Amino acid sequence: MRPSPTAVRYASVLLAGTLAATGLTLAPATALPEPAATGATAPGIDFVDIEGDGGTTLKANVALPDGASADSARTYPLIVLPTSWGLPQIEYLAQAKKLADAGYVVVSYNSRGFWQSGGEIEVGGPEDVADASRVIDWALAHTPADKDRVGMGGVSYGAGISLLAAGHDPRIKAVTALSGWADLIGSIYSGRTQHLQAAGLLGGAGELTGRPSPELRQVLKDFTESNLDKEDEMIAWGKKRSPAAYLDRINDNGAAVMLGNAWSDSIFPPNQYADFYEKLRGPKRLEFRPGDHATPEATGLLGLPNDTWSHAHDWFDRYLKGEKNGIDTEPPVQLKSRSTGQYEGYGSWKEVPSGKRAIPLEGKKELKTGGDSGANGGTMFLTGLLDQFLKLPPVVSMPLLPRSRAAVWESERYGEDTRVRGTTKLHTTVAGTAESGTFYAYLYDVGPLGAGKLITHAPHTFHDRTPGKPFAVDLDLFSTAYDVPKGHRLAVVIDTVDPLYAEHNPDGARLEFTSPAADPSRMTVPTGKPTDAG
Prior knowledge:
Signal peptide: 1-31
Family: Belongs to the AB hydrolase superfamily.
Largest sheet: 11 strands, mixed
CATH class of the largest domain: Alpha Beta
GO molecular function: carboxylic ester hydrolase activity; dipeptidyl-peptidase activity
Oligomer: single chain
Keywords: Hydrolase, Signal
């Protein structure tokens, strides 16, 4: 079943905004001219056809170092770049040329099911993983690529496929996975809540630029309609496509893995990357920056100076060329603060918070469901871009939030700057008048005039609960790095409507939040050192 025309139009707007951020434009999949198989359309770039898994044709392009040829006696390290979801094979041309100039053979290909590549969209399924290996095979047979120095990388969909491939093909020695996923279900179904704007974008973009498989269409239908009878099947489908499920294989194969993501990524939130990073055993690096999905990498796709791509090149240089460029000697966790724009280095993700503040959630708060209080996580892409470039997160007036729609707790004013670093955790007790329900938790920085700037948030949904019977909930909010100025407060807000997500509150339902003496409710905020960590 295809998404409704409204969903497709909505996804088109979101996708156009994303492509605008990367300097690309959207056209129907049939409109992209197909280059001749061996015709060079840009200096040093040849367009070719590669036979993927099952004989599927993958449209690809190849960039070689100056003077290199297929029959060259000298070999060069190889980098394979699968394209992002919905983007054509020209996505990486600027980066491919830079890498080729630096002495790499670079093969970029359109992931199966998109644009002129054959097959159907499998969302990182076995066919996509096999395609990656077939592309490596082709490069080793048709270019002066070195079989012992193979790397993979990419943005978004290309990042996920690269990580999956690293768990199945031991030839891959280095990976740069930018704005990707390690846990697909943990990304778009966190808190057991459908991330509807994200799912709408992916589904709509897939229909506009490719050919979703019947399985994908059914999964999206069951997902968006909250078909709980199929929940176990959907989770199994997502696990099969999650690099975290192949962690042991990735570790055994030993690829050096660099992960990069945005704090406000509205498709693949940062928590799932941080969890995955901590479990990697080989050479590894984790970078988080302000922005939304794929926006930190966007200028690099145009060939402009870009931290993310610069570090990715250094990563390949270190682990494919053996250059001692220092990227492996600096702290492996690099965080760019949303407030200062400065990098902070840490020895591990666990070292990011050096302390914590607990905000008691005292008393009893009863909420009417179904009405938007005004507190929400923002709008896909727009919110993250405003935060990235203008340091403008979503803002609400704390005194004006309707208390019948929003439960609000505030801390005292802090006498010093407070650095929020890492993952904020909510513990509360809730009872609903129905067996299912949804709420959203937010943490705000509140200034002297009552204006609250969103620091982080997360959704939570429950099912099959006894109406009226309280139960405990533990919820991790999305990780972040944000500085709360001296004299400001922290505020916790809980409400029941957020346009980013699905809602499972029946009409007329109410939610009650309490703080039992034996198990007090609280928001635990991770804090960092008052000066940069290194």
